[in-house]
Amino acid sequence: MLYYLFEYLDKTMDVPGAGVFRYITFRSALALILSLMISTIYGKKIITFLRNQQVGETVRELGLEGQKQKAGTPTMGGLIIIIATLIPVLLLTKLNNIYIILLVVTTLWMGTIGFIDDYIKIFKKDKQGLKGIFKVVGQVGLGLVVGSVLYFNPSVTVRERSATPISFNQTKNVIAQTPAEIKSVVTTIPFTKNNELDYAKIIEWTGEGYENWAWLVFIPIVIFIITAVSNGANLTDGIDGLAAGTSAISALALGIFAFVSGNVILSSYLNIMYIPNSGEMTVFIAAFVGALIGFLWYNSFPATVFMGDTGSLTIGGIIAVLAISVRKEMLLPVLCAIFFAENLSVILQVSYFKYTKKRFGEGKRIFLMSPLHHHYQKKGYHESKIVTRFWIVAILLTIVSIVTLKLR
User: Fold this and answer.
1) How far is CA 293 from the centre of its chain?
2) Is 65 helix (H, G, I), strand (E, B) or coil?
3) pTM for this one?
4) Would residue 224 be called left, alpha or beta, if left means φ above 0 and alpha means ψ between -120 and 50 degrees?
């Protein structure tokens, strides 16, 4: 909204300084500051409201140290993240940008699913919350919407690789032909020679015109990624500050990818895929990171609020859609390795227990407890140490992910 106001002031009234809103860097910085202020200043009021409404966490007895002290801590704190993200986005972004529309829809969609789940747990006194099948249906539904829009919408394009690259010299800043923008399901695949993968090639064996059916591959992949990452974020949200901190680190890397991929000069210099209009996502990501950091003010040990599924499912959905939109979804196993490890630990634990029970009549476990962070709690590590070390691992993996911009 403010973007359009200042654009009008700049074009029609020539107000000094109004043109600064055209710059993504300025609006991103403003979004970060604004979201940080909203989440820290108004976050306390939201926590007070949740406490007054007796929206307290019901803690299952798992035999973990400090677990009983967490009972009654306000949950549904994901509302802080959602509000602190959306307000700057609505004020500072181009609201007709297809990527911004998708991210706002994702935030509201996954936030609603998580809110319903938390509501059932708290007010209906059902510890299971929303049945798993309904969560999956919601995640699949979002995947269908996101995948269909990214595939069929004419605004979602990439620059053709064969287009004349931008060159630089001492007399002129830029010499380039207008890049050809095409519809494509090409994505970035790290550590390979060409650094790209065309999903359409997967069905090349079907014969001539196979490109027209690439959506049969692309949309299911989008559904799988959104479901996997949102569930991974949900499982990671088990100890104070873990999900919010690791998500902020991963989102920061995605912000760098969005900025360079949406900038024709930087993308040409780095020899990476140019994605028109994707740079606007940098403003959304800045607001998202600010909201997560502000939430950490209250969620760090000892937490005075939990994000609940309202926050964890939303975080996972946003990160998944961001990665798909900037064509970096193949980097998610590295960039979001914490989520991946948490997911994998649960799958391995349950599978191995069922297998050994069927084979030997007694179920055995790989980990002391899953998800993975509970394993380390059982080993006697304080949750603050676990969270800090997971953050360090997330930072290292983020650096590796960013380095892949130049690794072929």
Assistant:
1) 14
2) coil
3) 0.91
4) alpha
